[in-house]
Amino acid sequence: MEKYQVIKSITLELAEAMLDRAEEKAKELKVAVNMAITDQSGHLKAFRRMDGAPLLSIGISQRKAYTASAFGIPTGEWFDLIKDHPRLLHGIPHTPDLVIFGGGFPIEVGGEVIGAIGVSGGTEEEDEAIGQAALSVLYVKTSAEGEKVLTCQKGCDACGKSIHHSC
User: Fold this and answer.
1) Are 38 and 69 contacting, i.e. CB atoms less than 8 angstroms apart?
2) Residue 153 domain flag
3) Could you tell me which of 10, 18, 86, 104 has the fewest CB atoms within 10 Å of its CB?
4) 93-97 long-range contacts, Cβ below 8 Å, gap at least 24?
5) Which pTM was predicted?
6) Is 1 a domain residue?
7) What DSSP string runs through 96-108?
């Protein structure tokens, strides 16, 4: 019988680097957002509120990160998972701290969730683009031609999909 397990968790250094990249993308999009990063257990690790970011979005960004951390899937995938199941569609959104719209992403290393990021304050599409930009800190590799290219979050080189997906 094992007496303990080793659990990987995001470092503050990585969290801050991801927040820096997210803020760069938000400025590029000309939108002020709140950005929250949680550890693998959904506890807040780092947070940043840009000047002018909506006050209500502080909590939403944290709940997006919590949801992505707790379930290991992007918050933007939730609706498609539950839309054809009336009991889930009308029941699960009432779960405290659960968010079922885009802007929350698990942060994975080697297929293991080490944390999550939640972005709120822009449109759903802007929040998602900012979150994906933050994830790119982790998933940049150098191609055979020496170019920096993104790989998917699951680490598969063959699929060619975006950096967040279930492959």
Assistant:
1) yes
2) no
3) 86
4) 97/63, 97/66, 97/67
5) 0.83
6) no
7) TT---SSSEEEEE
DSSP assignment letter at 75: G
Residue listed under structure tokens 């279930």: 166
Rounded Cα gap, residues 145 and 163, in angstroms: 20
Which residue range(s) make up the domain with 73? 12-139
Indicate which CATH number applies to the domain containing 106.
3.30.450.150
The answer to whether residue 42 sits within a structural domain is yes
Task: Please report, as a single letter, which amino acid is at residue 65.
Answer: A
- What is the per-residue pLDDT for 22? 98
The total number of structural domains that make up the chain: 1
Q: Give every CB contact of residue 145 below 8 A, 6+ residues apart in sequence.
A: none
Q: How many Å apart are CA 94 and CA 3, to the nearest integer?
A: 36
Residue 128 — pLDDT band, cuts 50, 70, 90? very high
Does residue 71 lie within any of the structural domains?
Answer: yes
Burial class for 9, CB neighbours closer than 10 Å (0-12, 13-18, 19+):
middle
pLDDT tens by residue, 27-83: 999 999 999 999 999 999 999 999 999 999 999 999 999 999 999 999 999 999 888
144/127 Cα distance (integer angstroms): 32
